[in-house]
Design brief:
heterodimer; A: 253 residues; alpha+beta; Phosphorylase Kinase, domain 1; 2 domains; 7-stranded antiparallel β-sheet; 48% helix; elongated; B: 186 residues; mainly alpha; Rna Polymerase Sigma Factor, Chain: A; 10 helices; globular
Chain lengths: 253, 186
């Protein structure tokens, strides 16, 4: 085998695209050809470097956008699908409607769309995944310390079982480029994601509740924390939740 | 792929089959879109558009492998979008940075300089070289499937990969040298 032939085979060899006999012929030719050995090493090095690049999964928001389209196309009569679709349930259907008509962006005072998008994406992760929380516990003395060293503030963590909102666990999400604590609560079959971070404004601000199609979002400030809650709840239940959070924070002060 | 107007309107059953066959490859579609556009926001738009197009073309799906079939649609959609919107308006430098940034800024900072340099070098390659490397090394497609995505003979795929790897090596070497010259000696 002369070198030009050998050259054309280097990459196919690296990629495992040669037949066994071609590979054997190539390996024999390689012994006599230092140039091709160098080419082989270079091709392997480039391949290896590219394979180290981390894969980036499709963002949750993209997934939700596509789900919304598929649902629209499949028709309202098929809002509930068997199998994996079932896990979405009515919650996700209403969530997707909520995202599509953009009410969240419009109803939150003084907030960019990006933060809202991120909160929704965070909620989708919490509500849809079996692994919606990184620390799963109803014990605030387990959940609260878990945040230490992971974010630069200590969130207010309380179990609200007595008020009808048991603590499920916590996780960290990125909101507006900042890592924030997300507490996950449950109310009957519904999950609630409460994101909270230290406020730059002083004073409390009463919860504003926005609601469409059974999906609720609350936005308030209490005891120095900005609070954002997203859930598939009736607005009255969301208000009770916000009241329960504030009550627990106040009782502890 | 038939003309749009010939396509039967997808019904609930079609959407159900599409969900189980094509939707699992959304990550691959987005990953490919990410490297074609080099911009996360545009990649989302492209992946969404391609998914919907795939659903409309799904009647012409003949049970071949779904991933290359979908990636081919991603690519054709990208070409059409570029015809409509013109080429990227962002300077290459910005695109390189966006391509090199992962989903989590903190994570990509930790991921190390070498990976960022490799990603930026890949992003800087012309589309023809870039996409063949992405399909081979990141999407891990065989030559046969790459040929199907790009609609090229296998021999052409093979020589394109060889040339693309050489280009990447040159690009990366240039970058590392420029960087090393910019840094004070230790």
């Amino acid at each position: 085998m002369d070198c030009p032939t050998c050259e054309t085979m280097v990459d196919a060899y690296v990629d495992g695209e040669l037949t066994a006999s071609e590979s054997a012929a190539f390996e024999r030719a390689l012994e006599a050809c230092p140039d091709c050995r160098r080419r082989l090493e270079a091709a392997r090095a480039m391949s290896g470097l590219l394979r180290e690049l981390p894969a980036e999964p499709a963002p949750d928001l993209l997934r939700a956008r596509i789900e919304r389209e598929l649902r629209t196309i499949a028709g309202a009569s098929r809002a509930r699908l068997p199998g994996a679709g079932m896990r979405w349930g009515a919650m996700a259907a209403s969530l997707i409607v909520a995202v599509s008509i953009g009410w969240l962006g419009g109803s939150l005072v003084g907030q960019g769309g990006r933060e809202t998008d991120e909160l929704i994406a965070g909620y989708i992760r919490v509500a849809m995944s079996e692994h919606g929380v990184d620390v799963a516990s109803s014990d605030r003395h387990t959940v609260k310390p878990w945040f230490a060293g992971r974010i630069d503030y200590a969130p207010a963590v309380y179990d609200l079982t007595r008020e009808g909102f048991p603590l499920v666990g916590g996780r960290i999400d990125l909101v507006d480029g900042r890592k924030v604590a997300v507490l996950v609560y449950r109310h009957n079959q519904h999950r609630i994601a409460l994101s909270l971070w230290p406020s730059s404004s002083s004073g409390n601000a009463a919860a504003k509740i926005a609601q469409r199609d059974g999906f609720a979002l609350a936005d308030w400030r209490h005891a120095g924390f900005e609070m954002r809650a997203v859930a598939d709840l009736a607005p009255g239940d969301m208000r009770s939740f916000a009241t329960a959070v504030d009550g627990a924070v106040d009782a502890d002060r | 792929m038939g003309r749009m107007s010939d396509a039967p309107k997808p019904d609930g059953g079609t959407v159900g089959r599409f969900r189980s066959i094509v939707l699992p490859h959304l990550d691959a579609a987005y990953g490919y879109a990410r490297w074609l556009t080099r911009d996360p926001t545009e990649a989302q738009d492209l992946a969404q558009e391609a998914m919907l197009r795939a659903l409309r073309y799904f009647h012409s799906f003949r049970g071949e492998e779904a991933r290359p079939w979908l990636l081919r649609i991603v690519r054709n959609t990208w070409i059409d979008l570029r015809k409509r919107n013109g080429p990227e308006k962002l300077p290459l430098e910005v695109l390189e940075t966006r391509a090199a940034e992962g989903p989590d800024p903190e994570q990509s900072a930790l991921a190390g300089d070498r990976r960022r340099q490799v990603a930026a070098a890949l992003a800087a390659l012309p589309a023809e070289a870039r996409e063949v490397l992405v399909l081979r090394e990141i999407e891990d497609l065989s030559y046969k499937h790459i040929a199907a995505v790009l609609d090229l003979p296998i021999g052409t795929v093979m020589s394109r990969i060889a040339r693309a790897r050489e280009k990447l090596a040159v690009e990366l070497k240039g970058r590392l040298e420029r960087r090393d010259h910019g840094l004070p000696d230790l």
